Task: inverse folding
């Protein structure tokens, strides 16, 4: 007899556009119950209108730590509990290395780092694993698989190595990676798995105005597919596209070479600089 797969209760931040939107639609299409959050209500409503029985909208700014209790209560009313919390909301500003602006860093870190921290504090008490003790009548593997919850945070491949003009964005994503890796260890014995997603370049509103080459650019639906299969496999790190990940991981082993390559590229694009 074929086992039925129970619909999951999933929260996705930043799901009014881009990768978050593609994730929300794919999870809803598969029959899961999804709460989507973001600041732009119009975008969120447009996403929810595609699967009104499976997607609910909540307007929440991830930087608003004063409203964590309220958003937790609202998610609880709509879903009861969470199987998966996906912290996808992100924000990017490029930097001028010689003229760094503290406020710019603050804006980026507020979303990409503190936004995840706020999300975790909202989600943690709602995670099913903390509310439903393991059922000892079930075979061990089945019982563990059904009861473990998941926290997923979206970082970036830019976290792997210093990228020009990404002093704030890349370092915020590196901080997010560390935060989630540490959390993975700390909550493992509470039946919570933690995954970090590090995408390369994805075609979304965030990259729409980029005026530099974006190798191996992929569309948001393809990115969502990679993320969902990584979440399904409960992978520690979900990093793609593979070729870009390998190149950057290799370069991280040779920082001197990475420096020289980037200096040469900058010199060619700005010969007088
Ligand atoms: N696109 C890429 O190439 C790429 C590469 C690596 C990593 N990423 C990461 O992937 C994630 C998704 O980005 P995307 O590419 O899909 O770009 P996107 O379409 O701009 O999505 C970002 C989402 O975050 C939401 N958001 C921003 N600030 C927020 C805040 N303060 N509170 C709540 N929501 C907020 C935005 O919605 P509202 O404005 O409506 O709030 C938006 O829906 C981000 O974490 C990004 O850093 C993207």
Result:
């Amino acid at each position: 007899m074929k086992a039925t797969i129970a619909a999951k209760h999933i929260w996705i931040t930043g799901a009014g556009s881009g990768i978050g939107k593609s994730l929300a639609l794919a999870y809803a299409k598969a029959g899961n119950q999804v709460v989507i959050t973001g600041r732009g209500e119009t975008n969120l409503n447009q996403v929810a209108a595609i699967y009104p029985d499976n997607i609910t909208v909540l307007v929440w700014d991830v930087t608003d730590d004063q409203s964590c209790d309220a958003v937790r209560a609202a998610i609880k009313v709509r879903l009861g509990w969470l199987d998966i919390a996906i912290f996808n909301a992100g924000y990017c500003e490029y930097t001028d290395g010689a003229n760094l602006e503290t406020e710019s860093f603050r804006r980026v870190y507020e979303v990409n780092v503190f936004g995840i921290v706020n999300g975790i504090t909202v989600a943690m008490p709602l995670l099913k694993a903390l509310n439903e003790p393991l059922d000892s009548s079930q075979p061990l593997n089945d019982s563990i698989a059904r009861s473990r919850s998941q926290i997923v945070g979206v970082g970036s491949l830019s976290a792997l190595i210093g990228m020009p003009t990404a002093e704030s964005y890349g370092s915020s994503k590196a901080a997010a990676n560390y935060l989630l890796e540490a959390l993975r260890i700390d909550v493992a014995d509470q039946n919570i798995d933690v995954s970090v997603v590090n995408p390369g370049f994805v075609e979304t509103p965030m990259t729409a105005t980029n005026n530099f080459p974006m190798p191996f650019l992929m569309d948001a639906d393809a990115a969502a597919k990679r993320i969902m299969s990584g979440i399904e496999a409960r992978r520690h790190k979900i990093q793609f596209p593979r070729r870009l990940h390998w190149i950057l991981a290799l370069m991280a082993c040779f920082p001197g070479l990475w420096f020289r390559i980037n200096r040469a590229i900058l010199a060619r694009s700005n010969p007088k600089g």
Remarks:
- The CA atoms of residues 182 and 194 lie 9 Å apart.
- The mean pLDDT is 93.
- DSSP finds ten helices and nine strands in the chain.
